[in-house]
């Protein structure tokens, strides 16, 4: 068996990197058909190494530190954290920066493995606002970053990264230390017993199996912070990136907020249209999301490769869960008080006559967010193959 033989896993998940480490996405149609919330069984997993083994009876005794540039450094257990701080619950979509990398690898091989368009999932996360804990430790003058480290032991140390301290201190960013997903204890693959959740940013910043929080004046010097989750300029190929480490040291190339993105769940890539049904209509549907809490403001479909566009209908996860505001759900107050802030994917749909679909070669989709960030027609290729967000395309296949 692998080092993860203690971890239960769903056979429907598609393995992207062999047997170990565990990196999986659900079939896109199954993921989409679950609705806004993903069940823990189908939630995508991105592990760099073996999953730390934590027994249920040891969850509350798990300890992590708050150290570095703080007046009151501390070691705190999950038990103390949950006893001393109020908890909140809200829905967050986590997205791997490699979502849709397969399309990039088809154009030119990047250094990453081929995610389809299901490298994302949504859960109601419950935990303590990280702001509260950091405030409690009292950051010192000159502190600018919060570094995070997990318990996983990897070839280049433990997995770690950092975010800006002023993001952590901004309540509208919703950064939390989560111990539950959809009302249950975190599953081992998702950070049991405790993880960071950074809404609106790439999943790579949401450190699992949290062991250390270090307040610093400079960004993390962890290997994974430097050599992962970056978009180097497009002319930097794998050779150049290996020859010249200076490319990796430029913090401007680190990625944080998600980019505006969307994908088509129906029709699936291999779906075949029945020519008998030409007089009927077919509902084209899929998802869209953006970064930094920005709301998706439109989703458009084209049947003629961008010459003309149709406006799709959009439904927001936030609108659904707003109805439960202030209810005691899952042991934490469901807090939707940021109103227009969107930390979740939205679903779009549009009925189209099958005859019209059959006249087209393909369907493309693009989304736009409240800052007018719109998905580009052309792909931006980079050496790690990240944040691919060009128009998503599905070919139309007709029954022969
Ligand atoms: N945290 C630790 N400790 N180790 C990891 O390998 N992977 C990161 C992040 N946090 C990782 C981690 C990456 S790249 C992503 S996309 C998310 O976790 C994935 O979270 P999930 O597996 O719960 O979906």
From TrEMBL:
Mo-molybdopterin binds at residue 96. It comes from the Eukaryota. Belongs to the nitrate reductase family. Nitrate reductase is a key enzyme involved in the first step of nitrate assimilation in plants, fungi and bacteria. Homodimer. This is Nitrate reductase. The chain holds residues 47 to 446 of 863 of the full protein.
């Amino acid at each position: 068996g692998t080092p993860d033989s203690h971890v239960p896993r769903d056979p429907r998940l598609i393995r992207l990197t062999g047997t170990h480490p565990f990196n999986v996405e659900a079939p896109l149609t199954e993921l989409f058909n679950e609705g806004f919330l993903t069940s823990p069984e189908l939630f995508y997993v991105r592990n760099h190494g073996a999953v730390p083994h934590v027994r249920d009876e040891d969850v509350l005794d798990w300890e992590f530190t708050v150290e570095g540039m703080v007046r009151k450094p501390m070691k705190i257990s999950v038990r103390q954290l949950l006893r001393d701080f109020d908890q909140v619950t809200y829905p967050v979509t986590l997205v791997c920066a490699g979502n849709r990398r397969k399309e990039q690898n088809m154009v030119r091989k990047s250094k990453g493995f081929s995610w389809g368009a299901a490298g994302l999932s949504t859960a109601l996360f419950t935990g303590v606002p990280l702001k509260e804990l950091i405030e409690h430790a009292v950051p010192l003058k000159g502190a600018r970053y919060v570094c995070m480290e997990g318990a996983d032991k990897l070839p280049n140390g433990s997995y770690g990264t950092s975010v800006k301290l002023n993001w952590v201190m901004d309540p509208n960013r919703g950064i939390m230390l989560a111990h539950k997903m959809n009302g249950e204890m975190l599953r081992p693959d998702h950070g049991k017993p405790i993880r960071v959740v950074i809404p609106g940013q790439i999943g790579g910043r949401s450190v699992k199996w949290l062991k250390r929080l270090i307040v610093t004046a400079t960004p993390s010097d962890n290997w994974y912070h430097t050599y992962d989750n970056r978009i180097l300029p497009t002319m930097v190929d794998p050779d150049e990136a290996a020859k010249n480490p200076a490319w990796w040291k430029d913090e401007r190339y680190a990625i944080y907020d998600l980019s505006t993105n969307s994908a088509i769940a129906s029709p699936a890539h291999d779906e075949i249209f029945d020519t008998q049904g030409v007089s009927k209509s077919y509902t084209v549907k899929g998802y869209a999301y953006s970064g930094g809490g920005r709301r998706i403001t439109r989703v458009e479909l084209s049947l003629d490769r961008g010459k003309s566009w149709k406006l799709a209908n959009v439904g927001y996860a936030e609108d659904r869960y707003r109805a439960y505001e202030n209810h005691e759900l899952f042991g934490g107050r469901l807090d939707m008080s940021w109103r227009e802030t969107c930390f979740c994917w939205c679903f779009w749909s549009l009925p189209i006559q099958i005859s019209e679909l059959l006249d087209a070669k393909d369907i493309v989709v693009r989304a736009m967010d409240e800052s007018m960030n719109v998905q580009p027609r052309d792909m931006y290729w980079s050496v790690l193959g990240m944040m691919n967000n060009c128009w998503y395309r599905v070919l139309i296949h007709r029954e022969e």
